[in-house]
Amino acid sequence: MNLLFHFCLIKLYFRQFNNKEIELYMLETLKIGILGGGQLGGMLIRSAIDFGLNICVMDKDPNAPCARYTSSFTCTNPADYEAVMAFGEKLDVLTIEKENVNTQALLELSKRGVKVFPHPETIGIIQDKYLQKKFLENIGVPVVPGVAVLNKKDVIAHANRLPFCLKKCRSGYDGKGVMIMRSEEDLQNAFDEPCVLEELVQIKQELSVIVSRDVKGNIQCYDPVHMIFDKERLLLDFQICPANIPEELSVEASNIAIKIAEGLKLVGILAVEMFVTSDGKLLVNELAPRPHNSGHHTIEACNTSQYEQHLRAILGMPLGDTSLKFKSAMINILEPRPEQRKQLEAAINHIASTTGAHLHWYGKTNSKEGRKIGHVTITAENIENALLKTVRIRNLINNKYEKI
Ligand code: ADP
Fold first, then answer.
1. Which of 83, 147, 190, 330 could disulfide-pair with 155, CB 3.0 to 4.6 Å?
2. What phi and psi, each to the nearest 5 degrees, are found at residue 302?
3. H or E segment and range at residue 229
4. Alpha-carbon span 285 to 143, nearest angstrom
């Protein structure tokens, strides 16, 4: 009886989703593709299993984490037009777990009837940090003021703006395409490619709000996350949810995220990273139209994880409840230097024996030093307990040799 009810519901979603009668569609008959086979794709697959979905993954790396999670793994480059066309033409729904994908192919597939979410136009805007900034300015969202520069010579010509933050327009990640320039001497190391030159912000706090929007325009936001960055590597150190900010700021941050999701006519998940400035203003730093590192905690800490929510949104199902079940913190685990491996093993043992600590190990092979190889989410009834455990684990992971 229950099963029958379930099937009827599924049919109903797809009738609404496609605006036409497709009685034969059931979730398990849909062919769903993901461009990118990293850890985010792995966590999407984990949620897809709960819905009985048929997932195909494409990544150029034969050792990508997803390669071992699906028998439908295609080892070609998501940035290549022909490869994306060949992968996508047999699919019903196509999504991404990274932005470096061929949007021309996605536009063409979309014209041919494949449901591509997020929309290829959205990916196109977000792939370029300058276009992203212009889009946000145009819809009235506060951003860090910045100008476009073409190359190193152009950066040097803007020396009068020092100090500033220089960001590659394309393909930056984990702080690798970002430089803080303080002196004329620093300018000699500037990136020699199209960049955005931004005012250097006096950052009080960094926040992320994850927002989801479905095909019908319904929206659900997750609680803001407080991200604590390593100031030297410009890389996330750890994060806490809910962020310890006044209620009005939390509402304002969520409203900004909702405005952007509506402006993009988003279908899926969007992470909106923001700065709280020293004088208490919110400025949007950057967007990611896919499940995001800052939403890892949603697996253990929320009623619906960001991964499940993304699938719900792109498949025309109702959005799930985003509310928190627990307070939480999340720490990235980075590939250590060879001599630090032993300490990392000790940290893993400690995590495995800590109540409320959940290890996610990505199973990467040949990872470079400093790359993300896992994360740990710590949940607790109150934030003090979560933080106590977090500090111990973080100190072990970071090899600070603290006694525990
Ligand atoms: P990535 O996409 O590589 O994560 P971000 O744009 O998020 O790059 O920048 C990484 C970090 O650099 C930010 O989280 C922040 O700590 C710092 N940062 C970025 N832009 C600025 C800025 N305009 N002023 C000051 N710090 C900045």
1. 190
2. -120, 160
3. strand 225-230
4. 6
Classify 145 in phi/psi space as left (phi over 0), alpha (psi -120 to 50) or beta: beta
Tell me if residue 268 falls in helix, strand or coil. Answer: strand
* Candidate of 234, 237, 238, 290 to mutate for ligand 1, largest count of ligand atoms within 8 Å of Cβ: 234
Q: In which order are the strands placed within the sheet that holds 73-74?
A: 73-74, 54-58, 31-35, 93-96, 115-116
Q: Given a cut of 90, is residue 219 above it in pLDDT? A: yes
Rounded to a whole number of angstroms, the distance between the first and last alpha carbons of the chain is 53
How many A from CA of 268 to the centre of ligand 1?
Answer: 24
> Of all helices (H) and strands (E), which one includes residue 318?
none
C-beta separation of 228 from 192 below 8 A: no
Choose one of 126, 174, 285 to mutate for the ligand 1 pocket test, by most ligand atoms within 8 angstroms of C-beta. 285
Asked if 274 contacts 255 with a C-beta cutoff of 8 angstroms, the reply is no
240 contacts 383 by C-beta, under 8 angstroms: yes
Question: Would the pLDDT of 45 be above 70?
Answer: yes
Radius of gyration of the chain (CA): 21
The pLDDT tens digits of the residues spanning 154-175 come to: 999 999 999 999 999 998 877 7
CA-nearest residue for atom 16, ligand 1, is 234
Q: What is the pLDDT of residues 93-138, one digit of tens each?
A: 999 999 999 999 999 999 999 999 999 999 999 999 999 999 999 9
Measured from CB, residues less than 6 Å from any atom of ligand 1 are 144, 165, 167, 172-178, 198-201, 203, 206, 229, 234, 273, 285-286
| Residue 190 in tokens | 């500037």
